[in-house]
Amino acid sequence: MAEVLVYVDHVDGAVRKPTLELLTLARRIGEPVAVALGAGAADTAAALAEHGAVKVLTHEAAEYADYLVVPKVDALQAAHEAVSPAAVLVPSSAEGKEVAARLALRLGSGVITDAVDLEAGDEGPVATQSVFAAAYTTKSRVSKGTPVITVKPNSVAVEAAPAAGAVEALSVSFSEQATGTKVTGRTPRESTGRPELTEAAIVVSGGRGVNGAENFAVIEALADSLGAAVGASRAAVDAGWYPHTNQVGQTGKSVSPQLYIASGISGAIQHRAGMQTSKTIVAVNKDAEAPIFDLVDYGVVGDLFDVVPQLTEEIKARKG
Amino acid sequence: MSLRIVVTVKYVPDATGDRHFADDLTVDRDDVDGLLSELDEYAVEQALQISENSDDDVEITVLTVGPEDAKDALRKALSMGADKAIHVEDDDLHGTDAIGTSLVLAKAVEKAGYDLVISGMASTDGVMGVVPALLAERLGVPQVTLLSEVSVEDGTVKGRRDGDAASEQLEASLPAVVSVTDQSGEARYPSFKGIMAAKKKPVQSWDLSDLDLEAEEVGLEGAYTTVDSATERPARTAGTIVKDEGEGGKQLAAFLAERKFV
Ligand SMILES: Cc1cc2nc3c(=O)[nH]c(=O)nc-3n(C[C@H](O)[C@H](O)[C@H](O)COP(=O)(O)OP(=O)(O)OC[C@H]3O[C@@H](n4cnc5c(N)ncnc54)[C@H](O)[C@@H]3O)c2cc1C
Ligand SMILES: Nc1ncnc2c1ncn2[C@@H]1O[C@H](COP(=O)(O)O)[C@@H](O)[C@H]1O
What we know:
The complex is a heterodimer of chains A (320) and B (262). With 320 residues, chain A is α/β, with parallel strands linked by helices.
């Protein structure tokens, strides 16, 4: 059976959920061979094996943390040479897309970004994408070279499928470009203890209607009652009420949770672009004409400062 | 010293319009108004700020690959303050994908001459966010991308990239390819004077032969990806909408419980 390379997104050996989703999708096309790079690479093996990786290629080097993007492209190219895979799958993060694109160019291949589903086809893997702020669904293929495809988080339910997960050292020689862009400083993002926005099953977002940084406590309380991540519209971010890392939409994160709750958000096209593929959508807005109501499964026309705290209390009561 | 900046800008269908696909499954550019991609305005803005903060002679060229109407995007960038413009236009470019676009841009940037390329973070129609990385790969120069802060001094470009897990400080020597996010600072509006001045600024037109490119290398024919189908997403079935009469939160909780979220 053909092998499929899966690029592993991990933090010091802890594999992030989107990578496990990639393994699940990779098994539809062939046998997943994972590529884990940087500090802690070998520690990823157990989790990867449990989710179907037949092999885990690892390489540790300071370059992966000290220089931008290119060292990872070099490594994937080396893995491609070693394995001759049927496809290469990469998580659709900002960096993942850049790595994938440069790799594709080097391989003389095409690249598809932000797939939301993947299936085997007669002429290679077929990727489903959601375009024009999710107004259209397209199916496309890479028609030249080894398909390189990036897949959005929350596109598929993770399935365990134990496999050997044999660790093998990958040998990588870095290109001249590898050290072109130096990372001279790094400030890790502070953990809030809440789930990662793109990975969360439930996202609770606030917009301009929240009307102040301190009022975001109302949104956070609802999120915590549901074990959800917190999102924000660009209006709320631009006003300085919530960090940009939590922005949902075209120039923020694209999320696809089981449940999305929007409060005080009008539903502009650029916001919808980042949340329209959510499975269930709920909104609270005091304007009955707000476009967000066109998307909802359930909407409450009312003041969020009345509705949201009552909802939070009721959820807590129901959860006992 | 002089500093030659090339800003890549894309002409895109208006996101608030009714965007759709043409029969050949390329983006329909006929029925929707187009404009300079808002995200590329940030690139023009940063070029202007680098110029204003520099003691060097800075020349800003805006470059687009696109149909006849894409001139509007160049005109807007010129009225913001760029010095000159290059329009790469050729019927054979129809249907070019990201890999092909980066090839055309790389050839054009090299022909124009550059020390620094500045791109937007993503185009508002394709939203791939990969062209700047591809351009850097093709040019063989550092990519310093997705910056929310950028500065150029003594042949070095520095910037801040706010990633998923961390905020990083980056540094590279020129020549380099930079892309900037919408966090890099509001783009200026063209002044009346700027709009008038733009009318006199030079706009060069190049076709594929000017760039030593063959038709097969670009366009639908040269594309590395094939779109097999595009279907309009079925409208979401109308949901339940209630007016809060004091029990809105409880009603919502009941809905969430029914859907097993609580
Ligand atoms: C290139 C570009 C990229 C963009 N990218 C993004 C992006 O990534 N994400 C994004 O979100 N936006 C993005 N935008 C901005 C987008 O166009 C909208 O401006 C933004 O989404 C509006 O945010 P909002 O809904 O919070 O604010 P508004 O549109 O002002 O809506 C606020 C809503 O709150 C309601 N409200 C007010 N008070 C209350 C109350 N007490 N209780 C209940 N409801 C209340 C109002 O009725 C209103 O509907 C982008 C724009 C451009 C041009
Ligand atoms: N046809 C084009 N002409 C000029 N610049 C482009 C074109 N397509 C993409 N770009 C540049 O590349 C950036 C990223 O585009 P994309 O990878 O398509 O999302 C844009 O913000 C532009 O700066």
